[in-house]
Amino acid sequence: MADKPMDPKVQAAQSRDLLEDDKRAYEQLRIKCGALGKVEDEHMFFRREMELTGRLSPWYTRATYWLYHLVSDYGHSYWRPMAGMVGVWYFWSLFYALHFMARDQLHLCMDRVELLRSTMGLSFANIFAVFGFYRRFPSDLLADPTFVTVLLTVSETLLGFVFLFFLGLGLRTRFRLR
């Protein structure tokens, strides 16, 4: 009887049932650890529960769970969002520099090093726009914004908000701030 291959649909249903049982077990363990004041264990079981929730969710929502894990380890890491912000700052500075160097109509009165410094300042101001740094940035680069400039600025500001949120979440979890 054990030598007979199992129907793939039955095997998938059993596998899904086992994953749902594991998810419920992690949920109960998380609740018990929270009641006992074991914060680290509670968050470990939360991460396991989120992983299984992502695996059990429909295909169109799996990407959100995967991104949540990638960016912040389900709210546990604060180094990942910091690394993400540094990466966004670096790459968007290069994108801005390449964009402004490619624009012939801009006629920049600055050399490439000064342009790179200015684009790094623009990038930093966009990432931390929530703190009002964009008001302090000289607007000579943004005097005549193109569609590409606006697209780069908006996308960087949105990514900055996301990384700042996950940084705050990781710091809150790490230092047990409630």
What would you note in describing this structure?
This protein has 178 residues and is mostly helical. It has 6 helices and no strands. α4 packs across α5 (112-127). The longest helix has 29 residues, at 8-36. The chain is elongated and about 75 Å long. It starts with 7 loop residues before the first helix and ends with a helix.
List keywords for this structure.
single chain; 178 residues; 6 helices
Query: What is the overall silhouette?
Result: elongated
Alpha carbon gap, first and last residue: 54 Å
Q: Helix share of residues? A: over 70%
> Oligomeric form of this entry?
single chain
Low-confidence stretches: none
User: How many E-type strands?
Assistant: 0
What's the mean pLDDT score?
Answer: 82
User: Describe the biggest sheet?
Assistant: none
**SSE sequence, one letter per element:** HHHHHH
Structural class estimated from helices and strands: mainly alpha
Structural Rg = 23 Å
Indicate the proportion of strand residues.
Answer: under 5%
Count every helix, treating DSSP H or I runs of 4 or more residues as helices.
Answer: 6
